[in-house]
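Protocol step 6 of 9: fold each sequence in the batch and record its structure tokens directly after the sequence line. For illustration, a two-sequence batch is reproduced in full.

Sequence one:
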Amino acid sequence: MTIKINRRRFLTIAFSSAAAAALGLYILTNSSGNGGGAKGRSVKDLLSSLGRNDLNPRYLAFLEWLSETSSPVSNSKIYVALMAESTGLAVQRIERDFYFVSGIDAKMDLSPYPVHVTKTLSALSVGTAIHDLIAVESFDQTLYWPYLADIGKLLERYKDYTFDKFRLDDFLKPSLELTCYYPPVGPKEERIPILLPFSAPTMIRFYRADLYEKLGRPPGKTWEEHIEDLKDLHDPTGGIFATAMQLGSDVGAVTEFNNLVFSYGGRLFEVSERKIVPVMDSAEVVEALETYSRMRAYADPASISYDWDAVANAMRRGRIATALLWQDFAWMMDDPERSMVVGKVRYQRNPAGPSGSFHQFVGDGLGLNRNSRNQLASWLWLQWATEVGTRIELMLDRRALSIPVRRSAFDEGLVKNTIERREYESVKVVKEVLDSDEVAYIPPMSKANQVMFVLARHIRSAWAGRDPRTVAKEMKEEVEALGPFTY
């Protein structure tokens, strides 16, 4: 699930005047005009001269290695297709570090999710190598896997060009297991890693701490307590709705609802023996639908047209008191240029059902086009974008608060101390979720868009008042008609 500056809106990012001046200084002091480029100077000194100071030691160590390793491909040009979301935009802001150090010119193409999928799959399907590296959302693995290189084979082929601290098992387990292997089920020896974890969109609870203080109690721990909170917070005449929901987006409605499905012990699909079986007519899913529909009485009536962007906008404009949202939006809440509630929004795990507190996870991975003519240069960029030090820099970016996706990043003292700060509370909450493995997910499948359309239409009908049991039965029958779904 597929910010999310949007999760999904494209923002054009240009070099600042300071970055442009740094580039000019670099070209003047390096006659070739290329990176790869310490030329007797340490990477730290080079980047410092370009205005890049106070970089974490893990990042500098990788860049030193990159400077020494990249010379065979230092004049290469590669093309990277990312989604225009918080992590991709944060990578774009620091990508010049990679160029200055390696000399590899990475042309970055950031597009909103639908455009990204359409253009990358169109190019791949006719066998072209327009993009060397491509971001893939976990829902879409089935569409992309035939075109992506086996990460295991890349590790073997380029072992002399692989950072000595790179370890596949250092990635956070949900990010690796739910995002990067195809097929996503079956014996491990039969599963191929086709992606490296790039971002970790996870739904958590956003809430207005000041409004809960007026209530005199913390946010409820269960869905029943949460609904009591909504009842007491709801004040339309006073200009605030208790919550807003993502009913206007097919993916938004399904992923938001799936938090409840897992917490009530249900599943929308079961996966076994490479078969994806719809099971959304269970008693647990029916109960989740009943609870989800009860929230309508306290939701912004415009929720029927809202996607995640609209809900985030309602939150940052002080229109609602609480919502389930992708963590990617947390940075906006404290941005004085975008938010009317700076310092007032806090974060917690989602309310719990009978089976516990669960959080929708939609990982994005980054894969290498198997037809790329610049595989070594692309492999170096892929390592840089997912390396521990880089991930720390992306987390520290206050316009991203990106989840590091590497376990050892959370072992660093800098990260341990930083996530204890209020501004980084959302990162800490997601870490707790991913450590617990209490994540809700939807398996990748063919016809994912059609399936999401059917599921969302029925979820809306239950939200609007139709009998949840009837809705669940019809939902299953209609999804089954789209199948069978296999790997």
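Sequence two, same batch, same settings:
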Amino acid sequence: MTLLLTVASLAVVTAIGFWSFRRTRTPRDFFIAGQGVGLWATAMATMAAAFSGFVFLGGPGLTYQMGVGSLAIVLPVGFTAGLLCWSVARRLRLLAEVREVFTIPDAIACRFESRPTTALTILAVVVGTIGYLGAQFLALAILLQSLFDTRQLLGPWSLSVALLAGLAIVVLYSVLGGMVAGIYTDMVQGILMLVAALLVFSRALWVSGGPEAMVESISRSEQFRGFFDPMGSGQSVTVLGFFLVFGIGVLGQPHMLHKFYMMKDPQQLRWMPMILGGSQALCLLIWVGLGLAVPALVAQGRLAPLVLADEAAPRFLLEFGPPALTGLVVAAVLAAIMSTADSFLNIGSAALVRDLPRLFGKNGSQRLVHARWATLGIALAAAGLALTYGDLVALMGTFAFGTLGAALAPVFALGLNWKRVTATAATASIATGLTASLSLEMVRRLSPSGTLAEIGLAAGALPSAVALVTSLSVLMIVSWLTGGNKRSEIAGDVLAVMES
């Protein structure tokens, strides 16, 4: 049953990809789905793109490893939908009314009219895309490896083979249809994710004996000592870093911001926070449910301790999930991964084949063909990163999400709302956020302690959180130093959008 539902799900989305191939005739279709998408489809597509293997696999694994402190990642969902829609989304969509805006770098180019600023934005999008895709491919490989038990057959090559199989499916789907395929399937996939989250949450409560039994079992276990401390088993600075990165960094996520270009009617954005935030909250039940149920079952002696924390969700499904539920969840996880991967593959390809040539005043006549080849190249780079990263899915996702947030969130949050922000300030901020995030992550991974303590920062400090604070500070300081009254330096139509 599990295999049947999984294959059926893959067959449906692949068929939609082929169908979308025939409807994708122009770059406008490929990159922004013809700009004719309604409220519900946009909201569900945004949710499906935002919630990926990171939530369905990485979340329970991270909670198993560090306790309830991991939930600091999901707490901001209570306000991020409103923050995203009211501070950035409306202006992006209105900007698409007055300019030919298909991508995130397009918006930066319109606002600042600066080649260095736009170039750094393109670089940030490509780097973040590869990192986030790597997390999706890693999650998909772990899922396939766990469900089909390929270790016995393939040994050390198991993860690599599973990753390549998942890569082939995702690339075929994305290369064929672009954003047309994404929009027409994301709403269905989003609904599937919601149903699966609710069913798994209910199953987790029932199997583990309910909330009281879960808490009691975990509290009595020596293995999970400190699990329910406010900061979990992680350091307070780590937990606070999670909250900052996922609370503010959401404003710099191109796979979410890009969806707003596709809306048919920008007036419908006033309803978006309710639909987007509500669907996100329901989806996160799978993180909370499995994040508590799996350690409870281990503490009760009903589930063997996990060797790999990222296998929390697959192990629960294999040992406690009915075949039909397991198949549904696998299909939902595939939907989550493919929605996010499709968004990032198309965003990354657009940055390379559209934004980069335009930066140098060139317009290729075969952009759609080039976009599909660029999609393949980005996917292969992400797969290579997934095989070499060697850490939890959630931590890899945090790094990618944080890098995009540090580089782009300050510029979008303030640059589209504060006229004093200059091109110089935006350039300095993006360069600082991108460089700091990548450099600090490298220092952390090369450090003997696996922390930033060797360079004088708190041991639990998140590289992306430090980079975000630094980037925001640079933007504000440089804006005050170089700003003044900059209304005259902003194009009239863009200024009208900012003041609307």
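Proceed to step 7 once all outputs are recorded. Observation for sequence two: Residues 158-208 form the longest helix (51 residues).
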